[in-house]
Specification:
The complex is a heterodimer of chains A (about 190) and B (about 130). By secondary structure, chain A is of the alpha/beta class. Chain A contains four helices and seven strands; from the N terminus they run E-H-E-E-E-E-E-E-H-H-H. Chain A has a five-stranded mixed sheet with strand order 2-1-3-5-4, with helices on one face. Chain A is globular, with a radius of gyration of 16 Å. The N and C termini of chain A lie close together (about 10 Å). Chain B is globular and about 30 Å long. Chain B starts with a helix and ends in a 24-residue tail after the last helix. The chains are: A alpha/beta (about 190), B mainly alpha (about 130). At the A-B interface, strand 4 and helix 2 of A face loops of B.
């Protein structure tokens, strides 16, 4: 696991987030998107002593989520179908941008989806890791690994993801290590 | 004779649409390209690696026009080795199939710069 230079982190135990009402997709309902992000945030909230609160006020939110195409003014233009799927910024900034050109899927399976379908929950969980201060991982099984195949779901935090975020924020008192996909002692070791 | 041309032009149009909707970078034609060779498409690979922090602007190869050359030089070999190390691939410095396949996959737009040795030679990576 890695961190952004300087290991920035949030110093609050509650972070608010909002999903843009203007930068959205016409083929997914806002409820669909909210459900996906609630699940993605709860993955991380179960590990660290930070809770995430959904609010409507996009301007006031700590974390700002939206779908954008091409050059959207942050110096990191998106590139159409596939390629770069999304990006997020380090703690303190809080922006999470998803490429609206992708074919985003929220269902649990990819039945009937196109060859270039991308799982929204997998990308959301990865980008939230960046919002919390994690960089990319070298372990292909990790949520924080930079690449994601189309029509693939990867939402379960691995030991690598958890060890990295624990080092930044410490453990959630209710954290149960055995719920992770890998053995508990490898977490304790790391 | 209108029909054949018409058919042909339609076929071409279909082909262009098909290609433009396809995966973003298809580097498959660069598999096993050797250091020192000059192959069309190497410059696009350099742009890709530059985008994610593996090739600097001052790579000696970055012409003033902002473009890279198609020469597979030593700097590119080092950049590929670093990419392979960071992405958990066997570090060969060569464009082997697994490396090229991974580069052709969709990915997060956040640069890998934070995984790379910084100026003081200190890894910003916590292992």
């Amino acid at each position: 696991y890695t961190y952004f230079n300087g290991k920035p982190k949030w110093n609050r135990d509650t972070l608010t987030y909002a999903i843009s009402k203007t930068h959205k997709l016409d083929y997914l309902t806002s409820e669909d998107v909210k459900t996906v992000f609630r699940r993605a945030f709860s993955q991380w909230a179960s590990v660290i002593p930070v809770s995430f609160e959904e609010i409507d006020d996009f301007t006031a939110a700590d974390l700002k989520i939206g779908f954008y195409t091409g050059d959207h003014g942050d110096g990191l233009p998106f590139d159409g179908v596939l390629g770069t799927l999304a990006h997020a910024f380090a703690p303190g900034n809080g922006r999470l941008h998803l490429d609206a050109s992708e074919t985003w899927v929220v269902a649990d399976d990819f039945k009937g989806s196109s060859d270039v379908a991308v799982d929204l929950e997998s990308v959301a969980t990865h980008e939230i890791g960046h919002l919390l201060g994690l960089g990319h991982s070298s372990q292909e099984s990790a949520v924080m690994y930079p690449s994601l195949r189309p029509r693939t779901k990867k939402v379960d935090l691995t030991v690598d993801d958890v060890a990295g975020v624990l080092k930044l924020y410490g453990p959630n008192p209710k954290l149960r290590l055995d719920s992770l996909t890998q053995s508990e002692d490898s977490i304790r070791n790391s | 004779r209108n029909l054949p041309e018409e058919v042909e032009s339609t076929a071409k149009a279909t082909q262009v649409i098909q290609v433009s909707n396809n995966t973003w970078h298809d580097f498959s034609r660069l598999v096993d390209v050797q250091v020192g060779s000059h192959v069309s498409g190497v410059s696009e690979l350099k742009r890709y690696l530059h985008r994610f922090g593996y090739v600097n602007d001052d790579g000696g190869d970055h012409e003033s026009s902002g473009s890279f050359s198609d020469v597979f030089d030593g700097r590119l070999e080092s950049a590929i080795s670093l990419y392979q190390e960071n992405l958990g691939l066997p570090v060969t410095g060569r464009l082997d199939t697994s490396t090229v396949n991974l580069m052709s996959l969709p990915r997060c737009g956040v640069s890998d710069t934070h995984m790379i040795v910084n100026d003081e030679g200190i890894y910003t990576t916590a292992h």
